[in-house]
Amino acid sequence: MADKKIGEYYSPPPKMGKWEGFRKFIWNSETSQCLGRTGSSWAKILLFYIIFYAALTGFFAAIFAVFYQTLEGDKPKWMLENGLIGSNPGLGFRPMPPEANVESTLVWYQSSKEDNYKYWVDETARFLKSYEELPNRNHVNCSFEHPPPEGKVCGIDMLGFAPCTLDNKFGYNVARPCIFLKLNKIYNWIPEIYNDSKSLPEHMPEELKNHIKEKQSLRPNETGVVWVSCEGENPADVENIKARDYYPRMGFPHFYFPFKNIEGYIPPIVAVQFTVETGVLINIECKAWARNIIHDRSERRGSVHFELMVD
Fold first, then answer.
1. What pLDDT band is residue 134 in, cutting at 50, 70 and 90?
2. In the chain, where the domains are located
């Protein structure tokens, strides 16, 4: 058999050290390759990825552009029953416990020690200050006979919350703490008011029923209110609440609704001043009352729960 030429056989590459092999991988002067590729190969890859990511960016930009065309800046796309929030507002309360106890709803303090109740006074003042600092160029003075005109919103007279004021330390220094309640905002939600004492629900507290009857007989034009009641959750809690007073009234006036996201809108608030038995933990549940507010204690729909303990 004829001998094969040496050129016909594979010739292994010369052995190189690690550093020398690495340098050759970075730049091979014999083949003009950088990192194993020639300049034309790198140019083709770079061009491909530029086109690929440009097309990908354009695709998602077009999708977001179409999506945002379906939204409006001043109101949600899905409202009331069609939205995630739904059409059943809940209640919130202030002041809240410290952030360290974020899951707690306990308001606990010693009325005889200023450094102990100071947190609750400061937290309440901070909450009310946010109301005072809201822009008021759209605010008008409202009443039951004069609701706000189109494009305007009702202001809040902070003097109506006396004696629940900072000057009085919101009652924390005399064991008569003030708890502020607010109704959650739901866009375009209109309350269906209980303004007829003959059609009140059976489970409504007697105190509130009597209040509505009195309003209906004396001031029938002032019954357009989302009513509020605060009760002890258990018989022992009911006994330990000696008195409760509502300021400026026992609910939220109808002229604050519906919420339309108009600049300067202020959610109405109610101050409830409790006179309670000291040294006892009291479970309290406050409810908002309207025909289209459903109460569910397990999910806290239409109500709010907190505990109050004054030492």
1. low
2. 19-70, 80-310
pLDDT at residue number 311 = 87
Q: DSSP class of residue 304? A: E
Per-residue tokens: 240: 């330990």
Pairing, β 241-247 against β 269-276: antiparallel
Q: What is the DSSP string of 82-146?
A: GSSS-S---EEEESPPPGGGTT--EEEE-TT-HHHHHHHHHHHHHHHHHHHTS--TTEE---SSS
pTM given for the model:
0.77
Distance (Å, rounded) from C-alpha 153 to C-alpha 160?
Answer: 18
For 239, the enclosing helix (H) or strand (E) is helix 235-240
Q: How far apart are CA 244 and CA 229, in angstroms?
A: 10
What architecture is the 80-310 domain classified under in CATH?
Sandwich (2.60)
d(CA 232, CA 283): 6
Q: In this structure, which amino acid lies at residue 237?
A: D
Q: How much is the pLDDT for 2? A: 46
Residues 89, 288 contacting (CB under 8 angstroms): yes
- Residue 302: partners with Cβ closer than 8 Å, 6 or more residues away: 88, 89, 90, 91, 287, 288, 293, 294, 295, 296
Is the pLDDT at 33 greater than 80, yes or no? no
Q: What's the pLDDT at 71?
A: 74
Q: Is the pLDDT of residue 4 over 80?
A: no
